[in-house]
Queue: 2 jobs
Job 1
Amino acid sequence: MTAVSGQAPTATARTREDGGVGTDAARPDGRLKVTGEFAYGSDLWMDDMLWGVTLRSPHPHARIRSIDIGPALALPGVFAVLTAEDVPGELRYGLEIADQPVLAEDVVLYQGEPVALVAAEHPETARRASARIVVDYEVLEPVTDARTALGHGNEGPRTDLHPEPTPVVEQSREAAPLRPHGNLIRHLKIRKGDQRDAAAAAGKDIVVVTGDYEVGMQDQAFLGPESGLAVPAEDGGVDLYVSTQWLHVDQQQICRALGMPKEKVRLTLAGVGGAFGGREDLSMHVHACLLAMRTGKPVKMSYNREESFFGHVHRHPAKMHYEHGFTRDGDLVSVRARIWLDGGAYASSSAAVVGNAGLMGIGPYVVPNVTMDCWGAYTNNPPCGAMRGFGAVQAAFAYESQMDKGAAALGIDPVELRVRNAMEEGSIAPTGQVVDSAAPVVELLRRLQAMPLPPAASSGADVDLRAMPGGVSNTTHGEGVRRGVGWAVGYKNIAFSEGFDDYSTARVRLEITGGEPTVTVHTAAAEVGQGLVTVQQQIARTELGVERVVIAPTDTSVGSGGSTSASRQTYVTGGAVQEACRRVRAAVLARSGRELWEDVLGDLVAVLGDEAVEETVVWRHRPTEAVDPETGQGNAHVQYAFAAHRVVVDVDVELGLVKVVEMACTQDVGKAINPQAVVGQIHGGSAQGMGLALMEEVVVTDGIIRNPSFTDYLIPTILDMPPMRVEVLELPDPHAPYGLRGVGEPPTVSSGPAVLAAIRDATGMFLTRVPVRPEHITLSGDVRSEERA
Amino acid sequence: MEFLAPGSWPDALAARAENPGAVPIAGGTDVMVDLNFDRHRPDALIDLTRVGELREWSVAEDGTVRLGAGVSFARVMSELSALAPGLAMASRTVGSPQIRVRGTVGGNLGSASPAGDAHPVLLAVGAAVEVESAARGPRAIPVSEFFTGVKTSALEPDELISAVLLPAATGPQQFAKVGTRNAMVIAVTSFGLALHPEQGRVGAAIGSAAPTPLSAVDAQDYAAGELVDLWSSRGELPGGVAARFGELVAAAARPIDDVRGTAAYRRHALSVLARRTLTWAWDEYRRAA
Ligand SMILES: Cc1cc2nc3c(=O)[nH]c(=O)nc-3n(C[C@H](O)[C@H](O)[C@H](O)COP(=O)(O)OP(=O)(O)OC[C@H]3O[C@@H](n4cnc5c(N)ncnc54)[C@H](O)[C@@H]3O)c2cc1C
């Protein structure tokens, strides 16, 4: 086991091959990105291309009485105007449930839903034309609350542990059902242990803490908006270049919508400027293909920032009610929880998010008695789906708040309460699954405790404003500033769970080019900025001992690489590349008649001659299973990954402004394939979780997004993101390639709750909603004055 | 769209007179956002960046600073922190380094947003906006009469802003703004303060908490009254004065609830900013003795 410092990441266990596994190998795309030369999807260009634009619904819920495209078609320079009638294949698509129309047919269910498409010579012409399309809407009342949609209405949160399990209305036809089968997307249940109240279950004197929590709607806020270029091909098919997260699942959905076989719909990954889950669903994919097929010309579509807020799913907003029962000495004996996730107008990946939020929903603790209900509902809000942390993020705010509340009620230090109840290897998860590799919750917390705390805040006329709450806006020179420290630990399931057939394909080729051995790795796994291309090169170098590794363009001419999500690519595509390399090695050895790779390596030019050795591997992680629908029991997960944060904040309690002074993170990654990239993921993931705690929210009122811009959807800047201390543990998981554990999501799970805890510590206020807004701190009845203080 | 690039101030005024539908563009940090979002599609742009006169500043014998409309925030910070400390502080809070290099004080006034960060300080110091048209020549509009509504001003369609006229600082000045992150943020609310010891006057003005930037007149009068005997003694600020000043500033605001913050929070924050900045400015004044 090794620790990697966050400040100046250094590789620890360097392998002998330079640039192999365990080294800080340089990114092949790094220089281009830093110098601004990298071509993103929005840079795609063909000389004779047209521009496509989307007309979207201004209403969150309306019936379409009629659409008149005539005035748009009449505009010179316009080549096509399309509506739902022009979709040749199946109108509806979706990741899990095909419920979302390519273009709205008779109703629109959210603001921003695509209604019509225009292709024109110039983007401006296309926009002007789309504004001339006349859509006659009959505006309907939107359903904008998940509980209302489910008929759970204003029953109000339960405040004790004692009542009989409440019968729950799962489908409410009265509440203006948005779907024939009701507004329920999924109800995940866990029934583990004794379902009686905590005291009866434990047979002891029990301290019960109860809390209601709310998490706002976060946006992925990737910097490269949705873009792609569809090119009609001579064989009657189409080639689509697109920024995405999973080419093959896009291809399947596009094929259905176009009514074409997959041989005719070929996808190539365009440069991706961040994803974070927001590119798992289709955006402009089918639209551009439809316009290209109709006009016979290449069609580019590229959203602007505002449209991007309507063009992808967001993180589910959550309302959560939790009841924790502790013994007097701090043993957590029961958790009863109810989580409502607002799925918005279409299902997207809501069912899986509900599964995650519920199954990960009590945190990395051992609890004998668990009652969990997690619902996902359809509403007329913007559709919600995948975002880094995928349900685990929302639940962590609640369960970590509960641990702090329990610690306060019991008079126990919050870290000690967590340590006392922590999962470890061999523990039983709430699903009944045995945690069968390292679960170093205690060690992560202890290492955080061992780190020094940052120095106290300064004050006075000469303060460095950048270190103050409010920053350079000059709001305090120390007045009203209180320090707080918060702790949180979280965990995340890695790769796809609940029985999903989750695999990646890798094709590896070894040949001599220019007198030198060259490895080409070809997968369809999307590099979205995380460094997968580097990892693939590193694995090939380590497995084959060949320095020169080329990553072929990412496209659908090779089998699926699965999704770049669920922190799974290094594990699953990495596993596929490793296995393909090993098969190449075996094939070359067989051909050479020798036994040791070392002996062949120096002689590859002679052994291979002009021939290439190529192997294609479809690689699966160990299977998972669906959970029992009534009890939530089952071996649902491949692997868990754990991270913990200690966050130090200064809060100006009079203005409600927060300066995060330091974030410290400990995380177990099993094996750091690229230590520098690992630390980068921890920094970025921590920042994204911090953003949710402090400022990131898509504000939706009556189904209308009020801040679809980076002027008002705020993400942390470099002056908001503090320096980090990072310690990386490498406790190998014997089931995973190189013992690695997924890295990208866990820091996003625990950083936000630790920020929230630190703000509470500073203010003495038990805040229950994120993002915490300044007015929550100053105007919640506890406005402190420096003159009184 | 036509792109006009006059090389001198007279040419710029002529272009303005001849093209009523044209939009002047200086740093472009507001204009380009509007164009990109397709909020506005003018017939022509008049690029003012080639008009050298607009990028100059000077101090007259009476101590009036004449700041060309095209001087960037970055230059205000580095060149005018002694003559116009409040404006320099406000400039430091604008956007990001890139925006401060491009963005100009003239452009801030041209947009006349209630959230423009230059405005509260300009009100507090009693500045004037110098404007000119080819037909009628120059005139000076007191800043207190410049803002006429949300993003509207007293600038006539054939006029351009040539400069801002402001008295060189004779006492401490402050600017503070509240936003929901620590940099690169539009004001939820803001406050500018200027002490004028030689006149026994306190300037106080509010941003982002009314349809226009606004002077807090009652607060100014109250502070001047409380300080009347203290300017020469440089004695301590009497207890409660800063707090009362804050309350009066808050009372002057006419805020609304919007996605950036609530009216109640804006009022509360203003009372805190006003109290703190008066305390800082007075402490600085005392230290300067
Ligand atoms: C990312 C970003 C962050 C920002 N942050 C802030 C902030 O924190 N605080 C803030 O106050 N503003 C902010 N702004 C807004 C903008 O930067 C300022 O309003 C700036 O002062 C505009 O100056 P400019 O020179 O770029 O003006 P331009 O965009 O060139 O022009 C703005 C307006 O003024 C008119 N105009 C310009 N010069 C003249 C002239 N000489 N005569 C007549 N009319 C003229 C133009 O026609 C236009 O209507 C931000 C903008 C961006 C894009």
Job 2
Amino acid sequence: MISVCSIDDIPEGEAFRFNADVPIAVFNTGDALYAIDDTCTHQDASLADGWVEDGCVECPLHAACFDLSTGMPSGPPAKKAVRTHQVIVSDRTVYVAINETPAELPVGEEIGVA
Amino acid sequence: MRSIAVVGASLAGLNTARALRRKGFDGTVTLIGAESAAPYDRPPLSKEFLAGTVDEADIGLGEPEDDGLELDWRLGKTAVRLDTGDTAVELEDGSRIRADGIVLATGAGANPFPGALGLRTIEDAKALRERITPGARVVLIGAGFIGAEIAATAANLGASVTIVERARVPLSGPLGAELGAVCAGWHATNGVELITDTAVRSVGEHEVELADGRVLASDVVIAGVGARPHVDWLAGSGLRIDGGVVTDSQCATGIPGVVAVGDCASSHRPFAGRVQRIEHWTNAITQSAAAAGTLLGSPEPPAPRDAIPYFWSDQYGMRLQFAGQRAEDDTVSIVDGDPASGKFAATYSREGVLHAVLAVNNPKQFGRLRRDLSTQQASVVALA
Ligand code: FES
């Protein structure tokens, strides 16, 4: 469990990015907070920069949409899901429990190189 | 329809083959590619691949799931004639592939400049990679997106780079003079010399002669002077050619059972109200779904967002994103950030109608503006 930020650091529609084994982003959809791996599974783009709507984030580079609750892309060009992580809020502090499965990284990226 | 031949095995061709299967087509799909390399992604050729930070395997477009597509691959085979009477494709080696449906996805090739190298294929990129060494004197002809990206990569590799551009302001076509000048300024910031308003007269062994008489010493000369579609082989086929193969907005040509996609297609664009050939990466993806739908008789119009053109470019660590199409008399407004800071977003509009948006290092604002643009365009097209 990692203490990430204050809930006030993530306004609705925004995301907060932090570095764990790979960059992870916590999104506030207005209804809930979701944490997913920040790097698009297609190529090198930060999903925290993407547009959030209807429970999905749109990749800022080629617009693949990822479901924030499942990590699944809705269509091309991304094919692989991003990992999802559990978010817990306690005392206005946002905690993330990192999913232990290895991250899906786009080509040319290595773990530890952010 | 029992068999479909896809001519062109790059982004548009491969994605059309995938879309055909996704839509349930279970007949034969033959994928014919002129290059012998398995399909690969071209945008990295001027960037990461040229820089050597990714290799051939990294830029492959193939996915493990593609094995399940059961495609009949014919790589390293150039199509030389289309027989529309019998819907058959004739290949350079004399073989003939008959199919009930034909997908034209032959793409475009770099315009040659005598004496200069070009960059379009992975082989071109490998050849450049060997020559762009630290200290090498690299001259680029053309400061368009490809030229600017190669210049940025070469400068980063330690080469001494000069760009020669015919126009007074590079990129003024797509971006307009005002913002084209902003992007052109990045060259000087990164130690690359930009010579504008000047044509290249000739390219020699170790020098480049300019129209004004200046001579630049050079070790490598690379031309980035646009591309032309691979459609010469279609002469006499009965297809209408206007730049590329003319199609309607859903990729149908005038000949039943023949569709065209990607860089080789001059398709009707609802947002522009006319036929346009677009060489963007996302256009190839969007059109492949449309083309497959058209061939199989189940049209699938693109989502409003996908119907407007979009491209991006990475240079000197700056990411530029552009959507829509500007018009000559548009008003340019900086709506976020500041061009001097290297992070901004701008709109192109006239009389309150948004035509295009540009963002530099500002993906979030770009996402928002692109949505505004597609919502507005969708209502304009619906009214038309
Ligand atoms: S990088 Fe995200 S869709 Fe391409």
